[in-house]
């Protein structure tokens, strides 16, 4: 039996609180069960030096976990002088995902940075961050259009992300920590609302994932993302 008696294909309770960071041009508090990620999008009227003069902008992300987001305190990475390899990998994943659905030329020569801060972690922090980051980005570009800084919304697609894994031989959607730590295989999927694949990360822990198992995970995640996108749409309209 899954925690909270969830069905194998069921998401955890999910909610999105728009405008959770009032000083940011766009923000969203993404809640997936006991995982809570605050995503704040900031507009900067500059681009990275290597992009200047090219007539296009940039979208990137930073990711961090608060010291007591987990059961035991984790040291702030700033005290070590650099982000860990895991943090860098997640930041790049979020940034790549957002750029996949953004017309950087339409954005103009400016940058949007989405800060994803994990307030509480119970599995699936990177997928919650991506899903909330898209909402924060969407709100930020909406602000740019409303302020007549740009004419058209450069975010041309919708996306969300979810985890899936094999636990006790079963394919399960949206793993929480107690499942993730014993999973025989786990994967993270980033899909667009129309089913396009943006990125897939899959890892086998005990034995290789069979083609049949991967297809089961893929199918669960595709349907889960469709549900998340519907929730995103409702959050934007609220």
TrEMBL record:
<keyword id="KW-0698">rRNA processing</keyword>
<dbReference type="InterPro" id="IPR050080">
    <property type="entry name" value="RNase_PH"/>
</dbReference>
<dbReference type="InterPro" id="IPR027408">
    <property type="entry name" value="PNPase/RNase_PH_dom_sf"/>
</dbReference>
<dbReference type="InterPro" id="IPR036345">
    <property type="entry name" value="ExoRNase_PH_dom2_sf"/>
</dbReference>
<keyword id="KW-0808">Transferase</keyword>
<protein>
    <recommendedName>
        <fullName>Ribonuclease PH</fullName>
        <ecNumber>2.7.7.56</ecNumber>
    </recommendedName>
</protein>
<comment type="similarity">
    <text>Belongs to the RNase PH family.</text>
</comment>
<feature type="domain" description="Exoribonuclease phosphorolytic">
    <location>
        <begin position="11"/>
        <end position="140"/>
    </location>
</feature>
<feature type="domain" description="Exoribonuclease phosphorolytic">
    <location>
        <begin position="159"/>
        <end position="223"/>
    </location>
</feature>
<dbReference type="GO" id="GO:0000049">
    <property type="term" value="F:tRNA binding"/>
</dbReference>
<dbReference type="GO" id="GO:0009022">
    <property type="term" value="F:tRNA nucleotidyltransferase activity"/>
</dbReference>
<dbReference type="GO" id="GO:0000175">
    <property type="term" value="F:3'-5'-RNA exonuclease activity"/>
</dbReference>
<dbReference type="InterPro" id="IPR002381">
    <property type="entry name" value="RNase_PH_bac-type"/>
</dbReference>
<comment type="subunit">
    <text>Homohexameric ring arranged as a trimer of dimers.</text>
</comment>
<keyword id="KW-0820">tRNA-binding</keyword>
<dbReference type="InterPro" id="IPR001247">
    <property type="entry name" value="ExoRNase_PH_dom1"/>
</dbReference>
<feature type="binding site">
    <location>
        <begin position="124"/>
        <end position="126"/>
    </location>
    <ligand>
        <name>phosphate</name>
    </ligand>
</feature>
<keyword id="KW-0548">Nucleotidyltransferase</keyword>
<keyword id="KW-0694">RNA-binding</keyword>
<keyword id="KW-0819">tRNA processing</keyword>
<dbReference type="GO" id="GO:0031125">
    <property type="term" value="P:rRNA 3'-end processing"/>
</dbReference>
<dbReference type="InterPro" id="IPR015847">
    <property type="entry name" value="ExoRNase_PH_dom2"/>
</dbReference>
<feature type="binding site">
    <location>
        <position position="86"/>
    </location>
    <ligand>
        <name>phosphate</name>
    </ligand>
</feature>
<dbReference type="Pfam" id="PF03725">
    <property type="entry name" value="RNase_PH_C"/>
</dbReference>
<comment type="function">
    <text>Phosphorolytic 3'-5' exoribonuclease that plays an important role in tRNA 3'-end maturation. Removes nucleotide residues following the 3'-CCA terminus of tRNAs; can also add nucleotides to the ends of RNA molecules by using nucleoside diphosphates as substrates, but this may not be physiologically important. Probably plays a role in initiation of 16S rRNA degradation (leading to ribosome degradation) during starvation.</text>
</comment>
<dbReference type="InterPro" id="IPR018336">
    <property type="entry name" value="RNase_PH_CS"/>
</dbReference>
<dbReference type="GO" id="GO:0016075">
    <property type="term" value="P:rRNA catabolic process"/>
</dbReference>
<dbReference type="InterPro" id="IPR020568">
    <property type="entry name" value="Ribosomal_Su5_D2-typ_SF"/>
</dbReference>
<dbReference type="GO" id="GO:0008033">
    <property type="term" value="P:tRNA processing"/>
</dbReference>
<dbReference type="Pfam" id="PF01138">
    <property type="entry name" value="RNase_PH"/>
</dbReference>
